Amino acid sequence: MNRLLHFVFFLASFSGALSAQPAFRLHLEPYSIEGFTGIQSFASGQDGPYILLLGGRTDGLHLRMPFASFAAEGNNTAIQVIQPETGQHWAASASTLPDALYEQVQSTNMEFYQEGNYLYLTGGYGYSPTLGDHTTFEYLTAVDVPGLINAIIDGNSITPYFRQASDERMAVTGGYLLKTGDTFYLVGGQRFEGRYNPHNGPSFVQDYTNQIRKFRIADDGQALSITDYEAITDEANLHRRDYNVLPQVFPDGTVGMTAFSGVFQHDVDLPFLNSVDITPSGHFVNNDFLQYLNHYHCGTAALYDAQNNAMHSVFFGGISQFYLDAGGNLVEDANVPFVTTIGLVSRWSDGSMQEAKIGDMPALLGASSEFIPHPSVPLSHPGIIDMNALVDSTLAGYLIGGIESTAANIFFTNTGEESWARPSIFRVYYIPEATSSYREVRAPHLLQGLALSPNPSSGTLKIDFELLNELSVTILAQDSSGHIVFERQLGKLPAGPQVEVLSLPALPAGLYTLTLRAGRELLSASFVLD
Asked: Does residue 286 contact residue 353 with C-beta atoms inside 8 Å?
């Protein structure tokens, strides 16, 4: 018998006051499908009630030893189809595909997006027998989802349902692929070549894209190519991978997406706490809101309440620098452990954002999982659930796969036995309610009051700011193309008002952005050199 996990969500407030509340709650129900094998960091597609699962890994957290990390034996070489309502399962081996396809579709952390019948895949990281080494694959692949599902169910050849094009701009792993209007957005991620080494040995080359790559896909059902390509660079704020990007409806009605958290900051191995809003007109870095929960990639759900012009983003477990203890206190762990937290970030009609813990997973799980909406759940926009159409309790979708860990911090002692890819599935139910008792997760900003003068400047810039605690401070300056052109470590500064004077005579005239990093926080301001 299935065990119902019914989460009633509440949170002790750090500010002592209740804020606006979303009028819903969720509960999760775990169950198993015979034959379904656990996977994590995979790609997925849908055709009616059928869910297609491919790529990713069948083991748990990667090992630290370069000779064993991301071993080919842990690649997911099976392409699975599940019908979660009936509990049916089918699978086919990807080994029958041509080599280039076979290598990519068993890779981990591909970016993916389904447009109509086609699931588009980019990049992914894994071992390439062709190269004799680990690589990030430089391919754009189109998968005919209904055709492939039917072929797997009927036991027919799967090869006709894949098409692939080589393009180095698609060599990205750990980023996100979303679409707004006619334009695809490949956000963040990295190109990783060679074998992982936590001590930064000579076994790999790692390059973050630091970009939003915008393009259209020309696809006539046979030929496949990238057109209208444009790259937006921001080396300080788009230096992100293995994170969450969710579609959003912004308060002015613009449809876009938000990049939440991610790793690692440009000059320190800690997650970002700020977020980046992305629309067709550009990207906006939000340093006013700090996300303390759910920093790594996990299953997510986007819900829009048009009546109240409110956007809600749900994060199911995963890995985070912060969590709440039994007393509701915010705890920081610089080792960035596995957590049970189900988090919620709400964006209200005035543009303000609020974070809450709305429940707990039943174990340390959720990292590298995927939430897949039920085919009948109403959507207000692609990928966004229409809250106002959910008048009754509703099966909103399924939380599938991901990593389950036996302990919060296993990275430094990981032997491969401490975690695994979870083989069970959760039904996720949405329950509307008139009122909620959520309390806001909020901590004071420790970096405040950034001011630059004179502005414009002839080469000398005075920087005023304030620290609420003693913190290590770094200054970055970016040019108008988003490249970092100046960096200085100020070391640890005492609490209180601060004044720094920079001489920047070597930089050409133009518009620049100065960013301060103090501890875990970022604050930015623009200035002009004349």
From this structure: yes
User: d(Cα 174, Cα 189) in Å, to the nearest integer?
Assistant: 5
Whether the bond into 66 is cis, omega within 30 of 0: no
Separation CA 82–CA 32 (nearest Å): 11
* Residue 150: how many other CB atoms lie within 10 Å: 15
Q: Quick check: pTM over 0.90?
A: yes
Measured on CA atoms in the order 263, 264, 270, 274, is the torsion positive or negative? negative
Given a cut of 50, is residue 357 above it in pLDDT?
A: yes
Q: How far apart are CA 473 and CA 475, in angstroms?
A: 7
3-state secondary structure of 153: helix
Domain boundaries, the chain: 1-32+288-408+419-443, 37-233, 447-529
CATH class given for the domain over 447-529:
mainly beta
Asked if 416 contacts 59 with a C-beta cutoff of 8 angstroms, the reply is: yes
Digit-coded pLDDT (tens) for 241-259: 999 999 999 999 999 999 9
| pLDDT reading at 41 higher than 50 | yes
User: What is the SS3 assignment for 217?
Assistant: strand
pLDDT tens, 131-141?
999 999 999 99
